[in-house]
Amino acid sequence: MLLYYTREKVLEVLKGAFPEQYIKYSKFFIIFSYKEVNKNSSYFFEKKRIIVNSLSRRPEDIFISILIALGEHIDIINREETHKDKEYYLIVKKLLTEAVNANVIKMEDLQKYSDRKFKKGIQECFSSFANWKFENRNDPPEFMYIYVTESYMIRNILRSSGYIYDSEQGLWMKKIHRYEYPEEEYFINERKNEAVFKVIGDNSFYIRPVYRLKLVTYSATSAPLLKALDYQYLKDKNCWMKLIEARNLEQEKKNIENVPRQSLNVLSNSK
């Protein structure tokens, strides 16, 4: 669901920015990498793959980095190579402008984007983001998304009500037509004390990727602390495991910084 939703949003922006070349440009894959590295995203033309790293970033940052890599994909199709020049930045500018116009991200998200080198390059070519011309469309999207967390006790109810569990986000979710929401709102109000519901009714990009932490330590005295932090000990694998929101990774590292450990691995929770 995570990849499907993300690709769907990216294609929406691509179609709005390049309607005539949409089919030609839409042949690519998006892959989430469970690595926290300096390079936010990469594009590999031979396999048409956009690799997205560092999922602890804001959803808006992740989306922008995908569009930047998509710009490389388009640039190579157009001229069989890509360079960080005005022609390349124009492609990315069209994608980013459409993303803001479609209310997938906001102009302020461009200003907050973490890659300073990219921001400097594109703004040297086309002035500051604040000077770009945007034409926000106010039409409400056809679909709404409902995300449910802390919902273990009602998981069977959610399943029977059409919700799907997304292991990569560690939550239940449901995509509905806007006209269906009044009926769904009644269900949410009935169950709001048994789980946490988040409703996305606008067109903004929202994801909640999770990491599975694998901690190996031979410190028996650390067990009470790890249990208090909701780690589970897997006896057959001789390790402690915990599912966290990717955005909380740095805080989680601080929580266990005094635990003597042999290794800490960040893993995918996909099944």
Class based on secondary structure composition and strand pairing: alpha+beta
Please describe the biggest sheet, giving its number of strands, its sense, and whether it closes into a barrel: 4 strands, antiparallel
Radius of gyration: 21 Å
Give start-end ranges of low-pLDDT stretches.
Answer: none
Helix content: 25-40%
Kindly report the spatial arrangement of strands forming the biggest sheet: 5-6-4-7
How many β strands by DSSP?
11
Keyword list:
single chain; 271 residues; alpha+beta; Zincin-like; Alpha-Beta Plaits; 3 domains; four-stranded antiparallel β-sheet; 38% helix; 21% strand; globular
Kindly describe this structure.
- This protein is α+β, with helices and mostly antiparallel strands.
- It has three domains: 2-131, Metalloproteases ("zincins"), catalytic domain (Zincin-like, 2-Layer Sandwich); 143-200; 210-267, 2-Layer Sandwich (Alpha-Beta Plaits), CATH 3.30.70.
- The chain contains ten helices and eleven strands.
- It has helices spanning 2-17, 22-25, 59-79, 86-101, 107-112, 116-126, 155-160, 181-191, 223-228, 249-255, and strands spanning 29-32, 41-44, 49-52, 143-149, 164-166, 171-177, 196-200, 210-216, 232-234, 239-245, 263-267.
- A hairpin with a 4-residue loop joins strand 5 (164-166) and strand 6 (171-177).
- Helix 1 (2-17) packs across helix 4 and helix 4 (86-101) crosses helix 6.
- The longest helix is centred in the N-terminal third of the chain and has 21 residues, at 59-79.
- The model has no long low-confidence stretch (mean pLDDT 95).
